[in-house]
Design brief:
Helix content of chain A: 25-40%
Family (chain B): Belongs to the KAE1 / TsaD family.
Structural class of chain A: alpha/beta
Strand order of the largest sheet of chain A: 3-2-1-4-5
Strand content of chain A: 25-35%
Subcellular location (chain B): Cytoplasm
Helix content of chain B: 40-55%
Structural class of chain B: alpha/beta
CATH architecture of the largest domain in chain A: 2-Layer Sandwich
CATH superfamily of the largest domain in chain A: ATPase, nucleotide binding domain
Oligomer: heterodimer
Number of helices of chain B: 12
Number of strands of chain B: 11
Largest sheet of chain B: 6 strands, mixed
Bound molecules: adenosine-5'-diphosphate
Number of domains of chain B: 2
Shape of chain B: globular
Radius of gyration of chain B: 20 Å
Largest sheet of chain A: 5 strands, mixed
Enzyme class (chain B): transferase
CATH class of the largest domain in chain B: Alpha Beta
Number of helices of chain A: 5
Number of strands of chain A: 10
Protein name (chain B): tRNA N6-adenosine threonylcarbamoyltransferase
CATH topology of the largest domain in chain A: Nucleotidyltransferase, domain 5
Largest interface: A-B, 44 and 47 residues
InterPro entries (chain B): ATPase_NBD, Gcp-like_dom, KAE1/TsaD, Peptidase_M22_CS, TsaD
CATH topology of the largest domain in chain B: Nucleotidyltransferase, domain 5
């Protein structure tokens, strides 16, 4: 079946089209990675169009949609998830969500991506590529990493160890989505925010209004 | 069966996820999910909480709207979405969703102005707007007077608030009075048992030399807070209904006077009032009294359609389709401060 995959958890938005069948590695037919920064909302649907055109595939031929669920900066992340959900809903397709870090690199590794505020999103994987630690969000020095570390090389200095550049790929998204695609019963899409919303309840109301409220 | 376009509208500029379906100027459905309860303890809308709620509510709310209207996605002729003004993160959930539905359904997409949509919604109940009309938009984030020669492409700002929006003033005064959030409806209710003439609160920007169509409500809000605090210091009880009534009277007196003046000055005899504060019972009463006296035809959407909803976006979208306005480019984004004279992002 033809699967459209997308991810907006990092500043590079990724859209790909792959042929998938159970038990074998997916064949990527077209893929684009756009350094879109904070313009995911503007650029994502044009990128989807472009990838479909590139592969010569129409929306009607799709069998499923896969999306990264983060962790990643919230606003951009939601753009990808809601786009995948809406595309799938409009075509009556299943939509599969995966941890975006699972789609970075292969094999035994730790993955780090930029969580802003001088922190990293991170996860650890064993030799089978199974996630065994994380996903978490921490200061780089507090993340439970083991070599090789892949992902955002900008953190090499803070970590005091090499970080091999690696990004979300269509192949990685499809690999991570494999079990759910095979079962045909994907889990509900739950974004991996990992942080609570920034919001502080205001200080207690003034005495006068409390008294009035209690009248 | 109809040759009128079926438009699916998305509204996520603040804390309401609104999905509406309109055919021509007929309201088919108006599904709403709100995160208002989650913001209450913060005393105001927390953008990140609102955005998370929009994402969760999106697909289910679309389906509620479809079911209520008895149509399917395949029947939809065009998609419209609030592109601004509003909270960026919240807007983007609606914009991304609308773009994806438009792409998957292969239908045109219209990114529209939230404020113009507050005016357009009136057409669902009262038919085609007389043009030109004067429009007054009063909500939690905006207070504007507009001259509307053509709602699909020519909306001219006459004036706006220079500080707090009218709804914001209602919400802040409600807080001072210990009423729940958002306070507008509670102030409205409390005021029914109060005497509007009991306290003389200031009318902002009503001097001879003040800008005739601009508003200011922050001085009024401060005056109310001071009055209440003085009572408190004196150890006297605060007469909530009287304070609510006198405050509300000050707001609606200024709003209606300026709206009527805008009509007179521009030789326009139709006024439409929209936005959440247009649900206010005293504003509706005083506006109809003053419009009647001035020979102005007043139109206000029913209270349910005054606050944010998806039908208003679909209503404006429908207007744009029928006027032949160009749809938005697929690279449409959100514009948190979209100017009022931009009715839609064309091309
Ligand atoms: N009956 C009412 N009287 C006064 N204000 C009201 C009333 N009902 C709602 N409001 C106010 O309307 C505002 C919400 O307006 P709405 O148009 O939904 O929001 P937005 O500002 O996001 O466009 C709030 O400030 C609310 O207190």
């Amino acid at each position: 079946m033809l699967v459209l995959a997308l991810d907006t958890a990092t500043p590079t938005l990724v859209v790909g089209l792959a042929r998938w069948s159970a038990g074998v590695p997916a064949e990527v037919l077209a893929e684009t990675a756009v350094e879109s920064g904070n313009r995911h909302a503007e650029l994502l649907t044009p990128a989807v169009r472009a990838v479909l055109a590139d592969a010569g595939v129409g929306m009607a031929e799709l069998g499923a949609v896969v999306t990264g669920l983060g962790p990643g900066p919230f606003t951009g992340l939601r753009v990808g998830i809601v786009t995948a959900a809406a595309l799938a809903d409009a075509r009556g397709l299943p939509v599969v969500g995966v941890c975006s870090l699972d789609a970075v690199g292969t094999g035994a590794r730790s993955v780090v991506t930029d969580a802003r505020r001088k922190e990293v999103y991170w996860a650890g994987y064993d030799a089978d590529g199974t996630r065994v630690a994380g996903p978490g969000v921490d200061r780089p020095e507090d993340a439970a990493l083991s070599d090789p570390v892949v992902g955002d090389p900008g953190f090499a200095e803070r970590l005091g160890r090499p970080v091999q550049a690696a990004a979300v790929t269509t192949a990685g998204l499809l690999r991570a989505a494999g079990p759910q695609l095979a079962s045909g019963r994907p889990d509900p899409l739950v974004p991996l925010y990992l942080r609570r919303p920034d919001a502080v309840p205001p200080a207690a109301r003034k005495a006068v209004s409390q008294r009035v409220a209690g009248q | 069966m109809s040759d009128q376009p079926l438009v699916l509208g998305f509204e996520t500029s603040c804390d309401e996820t609104g999905i509406g379906l309109v055919r021509g100027s007929t309201l088919l459905s108006d599904a709403l999910a709100t995160s208002v309860a989650e913001h209450e303890r913060f005393g105001g809308v927390v953008p990140e909480i609102a955005s998370r709620a929009h994402l969760e509510a999106m697909v289910p709310t679309v389906h509620r709207a479809l079911a209520d209207a008895g149509v399917t996605l395949g029947d939809v002729d065009a998609v419209a979405v609030t592109a601004g003004p509003g909270l960026t993160g919240a807007l983007l959930v609606g914009v991304a969703a609308a773009k994806a539905y438009a792409l998957a359904l292969d239908r045109p997409l219209y990114g529209v102005n939230h404020l113009a949509a507050h005016v357009a919604v009136d057409e669902l109940e009262h038919g085609r707007l007389a043009e030109p009309s004067i429009a007054m938009l009063v909500s939690g984030g905006h207070s504007s007077l507009l001259l509307v020669p053509d709602l699909s492409q020519d909306v001219q700002p006459l004036g706006q608030t220079i500080d707090d929006a009218a709804g914001e003033a209602f919400d802040k005064v409600a807080r001072v009075l210990g009423l729940p959030f958002p306070g507008g409806p509670y102030v409205d209710r409390a005021a029914r048992d109060g005497d509007p003439a009991s306290i003389a609160f200031p009318r902002g920007l009503t001097g001879q030399r003040d800008a005739p169509y601009d508003f200011s409500f922050s001085g009024l809000k401060t005056a109310v807070a001071r009055w209440v605090e003085a009572r408190e210091r004196a150890g006297e009880p605060v007469p909530v209904p009287d304070v609510a009534a006198a405050f509300q009277e000050a707001v609606v007196d200024v709003l209606t006077a300026k709206a009527v003046r805008a009509c007179r000055d521009h030789g326009v005899d139709h006024l439409v009032i929209g936005g959440g504060v247009a649900a206010n019972s005293r504003l509706r009463a005083l506006a109809s009294e003053r419009c009647a006296a001035a020979g102005i035809v007043l139109r206000t959407p029913s209270p349910r359609l005054c606050t944010d909803n998806g039908a208003m976006v679909a209503a404006l979208g429908s207007r744009l389709v029928q006027a032949g306005v160009a749809p938005s480019d697929p690279s449409l984004g959100a514009d948190s401060s979209m100017p009022i004279d931009v009715v839609s992002r064309a091309g």
